[in-house]
Design goal:
heterodimer, A: 421 residues, alpha/beta, D-Maltodextrin-Binding Protein, domain 2, 2 domains, 17 helices, 11 strands, globular, B: MetI-like fold, two-stranded antiparallel ribbon, 15 helices
Chain lengths: 421, 297
């Protein structure tokens, strides 16, 4: 009886442990095909998704039997960023190909041996397809462990239908004109601007603050201590925007709410990047054809500066497998070729760091290109210049500033303590 | 004799083999991460590259950080609200339902229903309720003529707004207390009735003492949850405005977000220490005796 029981127990243990020894069956002919995993955020509702999927299909068809790129959808951007961080901390690349938002915080990823360094792998022909400034911005201590892909300008969006209803026919170009326009919008019953203090970066208001700071302190304002008078004045202006010229729920509001107010016509002025232009819900608004993209009214001595950033840089996992490395480089060369980028730009409205002959025909996209071309120079926004941790502090304290709990000087001091120098 | 010894050995081998998978899971998913967290709390490490030992520097940094101290304070408030408001509310409802009033089964289900809905969904609902243009402000405006408030955007109201939408969901603890109350021998109530004790006295002198052990257990669970609270606050306010609603869990997450992994580990160690401290104090103050168990013995 005991022997039978022991035998049954042993058989049960073997059954439990057996699956650990299972290995996938592979077709010997498929072993020659290199499969690349791309953890892509350009899926689902993202305006770049259809063009990206089509390009991947095209590449796979052209390289059938040699290279196959498989997209791993990452529709939740916050969860995706978390995946990238924790994967790298755990000692593995999140996928063969993935993107990052390049800023001082993510530049830390360059210390990892998990990322492919493109500095020695790009030939001159490939390198010259990129905007040289973007390539230099993507370097850290000579290393180029991510390629600049999507760039963005962050201009001001004006709902001209709302402006015309308020009796305003031209865009404001100075501080006084701006506040006069906002007063008229308010009198006509519409909240002038979308603002927000929620999420981890107070996105819309962060963009406004960046415009204020750069106009007051110049394109290199981010090199100055955050207690500089330019930042204090920018903080005072932003506080006025939130308390006097925005919706009553601005404090604590997230990006969805801020954008939602603009889409619903509850606010007349917004700020966001070119990727927003390709959204279906924007195209469905009654004022879509009246949206005007413009520069920022000069509130300080510096004018005609456009806020811009590297929106998405593309990375690849470092590998000792030469065939895999070659496959990755082949795909990235294809993806970042001017013809591929033109296809993505055409359908999405996004802007890229790769030089192409593409010029948009859709009005809203055309406006972005025109505004970018007319800017004398560009400057980073706060998040791109100072990183995620500083931006988080900015967002957290912005609510206190807007509610009058802290002064603009105190606000700047609190943000300044998070900046590592 | 030899056969008996061999049989004992095989029994122990079988026990070991059956325990092995669970032990391995426990080791890799609890023991190892715990010690790794404690180890990294004594280093400076940004998730990439090597760790450098820096002694108690992280602990000093966190203790002197007003944001982290605020988080500890908020967690204590959470623990006290859940332990001393949510559990007593659950006990009150359990004591009513155990009397089996009309529709008690339906009421039991209704009270428990929010516990089967995801925290994310509930948080989204409450964000809409608390919105400046939301139904809460509309009701207060209509009934009391009160001005609309930005409940989640105001540091004075945000914390209690988030706590409120957790504390009112008493279903989980109510079910535990109801089950315990239903096991109280009816003979005690009959004897009390004969002696002339009314319903209120029966509840005070019979039900509550008999539920003592279960009450302490549910309070321990509730306060433990309060000490490690994260989800609904993160979804509703992200720890803001101006860190008014931040908790140790959120602080830990945000430090990890900024690639300050060693500081996040330190926050994790603080969380464990604070949680253990609160539970120990609770047990010391209220004891751990359980009249129901003693009666059963």
């Amino acid at each position: 009886m005991l022997k039978k029981r022991n035998l049954i127990a042993t058989l049960l243990m073997v059954c439990l442990l057996f699956p650990l020894m299972a290995q996938g069956q592979t077709d010997s002919s498929a072993q020659k095909e290199v499969e690349l995993r791309w953890a892509s955020i350009w899926v689902g509702a993202d305006s770049k998704a259809p063009a990206v999927e089509a390009l991947v299909e095209q590449f796979n068809a052209e390289n059938a039997g040699k290279i196959k790129v498989v997209i791993e959808p990452q529709p939740d951007y916050n969860a995706y960023e978390q995946k990238v961080r924790t994967s790298l901390a755990a000692g593995q690349a999140p996928a063969d190909i993935f993107t990052i938002k390049f800023n001082p915080t993510t530049a830390t990823f360059y210390q990892s041996n998990l990322l492919m360094d493109f500095a020695q792998k790009m030939d001159d022909g490939w390198k010259n397809t990129f905007d040289s400034g973007s390539i230099e911005q993507s370097k850290v201590n000579g290393m180029l462990k991510s390629l600049p892909m999507e760039t963005a300008i962050l201009p001001i969006w004006y709902n001209m239908d709302a402006f015309r209803r308020a009796g305003i026919s031209t865009l404001p170009t100075t501080k006084n004109e701006m506040f006069a326009a906002f007063d008229r919008l308010k009198a006509s019953g519409i909240a002038p601007t979308s603002q927000m203090t929620g999420d981890t970066n107070a996105w819309t208001s962060m963009i406004w603050f960046s415009h204020f700071a750069v106009s007051l302190g110049g394109p290199n304002v981010w090199d100055k201590p955050f207690t500089d008078p330019a930042f204090v004045e920018a903080a005072n202006l932003l506080k006025r925007m939130i308390t006097d010229y925005s919706t009553s729920d601005a404090v604590g509001l997230g990006a969805g709410g801020s954008g939602g107010h603009f889409l619903a016509g509850r606010t007349a002025v917004f700020s966001n990047g070119p990727w927003y232009a390709g959204r279906a819900d924007l195209a469905a608004t009654p004022f879509f054809n009246s949206i005007k993209i413009g520069g920022f009214p000069a509130v300080g001595p510096y004018q005609d500066i456009m806020i811009s950033r590297l929106q998405a840089n593309i990375c690849a996992a470092a590998t000792r497998d030469k065939a895999r490395e070659a496959a990755i480089l082949d795909f990235l060369k294809f993806l970042t070729s001017p013809s591929s980028i033109a296809k993505i730009a055409e359908t999405s409205g996004a802007m890229f760091a790769i030089k192409t002959d593409y010029r948009p025909v859709k009005d809203l996209q055309k406006q972005f290109y025109d505004v970018n071309a007319s800017a004398k120079t560009t400057a980073f926004d706060l998040e791109a210049a100072l990183g995620a941790e500083v931006t988080l502090e900015f967002a957290q304290q912005l609510g206190a500033l807007a509610l009058g709990r802290i002064s603009a000087e105190e606000f700047c001091r609190l943000v300044d303590r998070k900046i590592e120098r | 004799m030899q056969a008996a010894g061999t049989k004992d050995r095989w029994v122990w081998v079988a026990r070991f083999l059956f325990l092995l998978p669970v032990f391995l899971l426990f080791f890799f998913f609890f023991i190892y991460p715990f010690f790794f967290t404690v180890l990294t709390s004594f280093t400076s490490w940004r998730g990439i590259g090597s760790m450098k030992f820096n002694g108690f520097a992280n602990y000093t940094k966190l203790i002197s950080d007003p944001t982290f101290r605020k988080a500890i304070g908020n967690n204590i408030i959470w623990a006290l609200c859940q332990g001393f408001i949510q559990v007593p509310l659950a006990a009150l409802v359990a004591m009513i339902l155990v009397r089996k009033p009309f529709g008690w089964r339906t009421l039991r289900t209704i009270y428990y229903l929010p516990n089967v809905i995801s925290t994310v969904a509930l948080a989204m609902v409450w964000i809409a309720i608390y919105n400046v243009e939301g139904p809460l402000n509309a009701i207060l405006r209509t009934l009391f003529g009160q001005e609309s408030r930005n409940w989640l955007g105001n540091p004075d109201t945000a914390l209690f707004a988030v706590i409120f939408q957790t504390v009112i969901y008493i279903g989980y603890f109510m079910i535990i207390l109801l089950a315990a109350a239903m096991n109280i021998p009816q003979s005690l109530y009959e004897a009390a009735k004969i002696d002339g004790a009314g319903t209120l006295k029966q509840e005070i002198y019979i039900t509550l003492p008999m539920l003592r052990g279960t009450l302490i257990t549910t309070m321990t669970l509730a306060m433990a949850y309060g000490m490690r609270h994260f989800e609904s606050t993160f979804l509703m306010t992200g720890g803001g405005p101006a860190y008014a609603t931040t908790t140790m869990g959120i602080d830990l997450y945000l430090r990890m977000d900024a690639l300050r992994y060693s500081e996040a580990s330190t926050a994790g160690v603080f969380l464990i220490i604070m949680g253990t401290l609160v539970i120990t104090i609770l047990r010391k103050v209220f004891g751990s005796s359980d009249p129901m168990s003693e009666m059963a013995q």
